[in-house]
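Changelog note: in this version the structure field was regenerated for every chain. One regenerated record is shown below for reference.
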Amino acid sequence: RLHACLSFAPLMLLSYRTTEVTLEDLHQGITTARPNSDGVSQYPLQLALAYLLLAGYLVRTVFVSVGLPASVGVICTGFLFSFFMQGEVLAARDQLQELSFFLVLLTAGLEIRLRDLRLYIFTMAFVPATFEILGIGLYAVHVLGFTSVEGLVLGTILVAIGDGLVIPKMKEFSCRFVGHPLPRLVFVWAPIEASFALSLFGTLKGFAAPAHQHPIRTDVLILANILRIVATVALGALLGGLSGLLVSRRTKLTVQGNQVFTGSATEAFLMVLAVALLAFGLSAGGPNGRIVPLGICDGSLFQPELVVIMTGIFFAAVADDEVVHGVENVMGGVWIFGQIVLFSMLGSRTTLSIFPEFIHHVLPMLLTGLCFRFMGVFFSINAILSLGFRGHPFKRSTVLPDSLFCFLSTVPRATIQGALGQVPVSQKFFQHLTMKSQAQEYIFMAARLYIVFMSICGMIMLNYFGPRICAATLDRASWDQLDDESCKEVSDKQQSIVGGEARAEEVFGALAEAYALSPETLAVALEQASADLPLRKQSAEQLERKQSAHQLDSQQQEPPANMEAARRKRFTQLMRLPTAEFRDLTLSQFDCTGGVINATTQLSGDSDVHN
C-alpha cells in the first residue's frame, strides 16, 4: 500500500494543484475530499451517492421507528452533506430536486380515484386550504409588508398537507378502526389538496414575474391561464387514459404465438413513468424555448405540475385495478429513493441560522394560518351538513371531534413545501417588485422551518389524538355504506331502517315458530293472502305437498299447549313494536294472520279465512 501511494504521489500532487479529479485517481480510488476555491469538495461521485442513499435511508428508518417523520431525518443527513458537498452533485442539485418533485406529482395523481371525487370531497380539499392561504396572505401583507402576489405565493407554498406523512397514517387508522369513514376521507382528500396547491402555484407563477418572463397584461395572463388549464387537463386525460387502456391489455400482444410483454408490475410502472415523463417534457422548455408554446404570452401550453397529476388520475381511472395496485406498489419503492434525494437536497440548502428566526418571524404566521385552517374545516363540515351533500360521513352530533380530526390530519407538512420552497429563489420570482430578495429568502426559510416543526409536531399530535377521536366516533356508517341515496343523514336514517328490518325478521320468525311452521310455508301463505286467493279451495293434499317440498312437514311436531301459549304471547308482545317503516307490507295486517295460518295448516278446507 505504501509503495502504491508513493508511486502516485506526483499524480496526487498534480491533482491537488489543479483541483481536478483525473481518471487515474478515480480508478485507483485514492482521491480524497479536497475543497476547491468555491468550497466544493472533489471526490468520486460514487462516494457521494453512497452516503446520500445509505445514510439517508438509515436515518430515515431510525426516525420512522421512533414515530418521527422520515423527512426530517433525511433533511438532517442532507444538512451534514452540505459540509462536504461533492461538485457534480452540487451542479445537478436543481435537476435532482425537479425529478424528485416529478415523482411527487405522479404519486399524487395515482392516489386519486375519479369515483371518489364528490362534491363534499372537493369542499374539504379546497375550502380549508383556501382559508389558510388567505390567512397567511393577509398576515404577509399587513405584518410583513409583502404585496398581495407575494403573500399568495407564500400561502400556496406553505398550505398543502403533507400527504407523504398523512396517507400512511390514514392507512394505519383504517386498519385499526375498520369501517371508520374519516381516515378514508382524509386519504382521498390529501392528494386532491396537494394537486390544488400545485395547480394554484403554477397559475400564480405567471403573476410572480420570474426572471425569464416578459411583462404582460393581467387580462391576457388570466386568459392564458384558463387556456393552459383546459389544454393541460385534455392532454393528461388523453395520455393517461390511452396508456391505461394499452398497459392493461399489453399481455394480449403476441408475435408468432409468443407473448411480447411479461405483464409484471415493474413493466407497467416503467411504461407509466415514461408516459408521465413525456407529458412533463412537453410542458417544459426545450433548447429553443417551449416545445409547445402558448402563443398569446410566454410559457408552455401545458402546466407541468397539473399535466403529470392528470396523467396519473386518468391512468388510474382507465387501467385495471390489478395493474393500478401493482404500479402503486412499485412506486412506493421508487419513492423511497425520490424522498431521500428530495429532502437531502433540501437539507443541503439549510443553515442553522434560520432556526432563531422561527419564533419571531415564522411562528406568528404559522399560528395565524392554522387558526384560519381550523375555521375552514369547521365551516366546511357545517356547510356540507346544511346543504345535504350526498354520501358525506359527517353527523351533527360529532361535528366538533370530526373537525378536530380533519384539522390534525392537515397539520403535518413536508412534501410540497420541500418541492416548492426553493422555486422562488431558483427562478428569481418578483422581478418587478422592490422587496423581491427579502420575499424570496423569507419564503425559502419559512418552507424549511415548516417542514421541520410542523412535520414533527403535527405527527406527534396526530399519533396521540387521532386514535382517541376515531375510537370515540366509531359508531357511524362505514365508507362503503356512504354510496346509498339515503345517507343524507347517515346515522339516524340507517339506524331506523336497520332496526325496522330487524323487527320485521324477528316478528316473522316468531310467527313461524308460534304455529310450528317453516318460514317458507309461512311465506307461501302470506303471498296467497296478499293476492286474496280463496285458500279454503285448496286441498289439504296441495298444502301438504308444499310443506313436504321444504322437507319440514314430517319434522314438525305439535307443540305442547303451554309452549304454544308462550309463543303466542311473545308474538303478541312483538306486535306491539312500531312498524312504521313497513306500512306497505302485508306483514302489517297481522290482526288476521292467525286465522289465515290456521286455515292453511288444517287438513280439511272447512275453516274460514278472516280478512
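Spot check on this record: The chain has a mean pLDDT of 75. The first strand starts at residue 34 and ends at 35.
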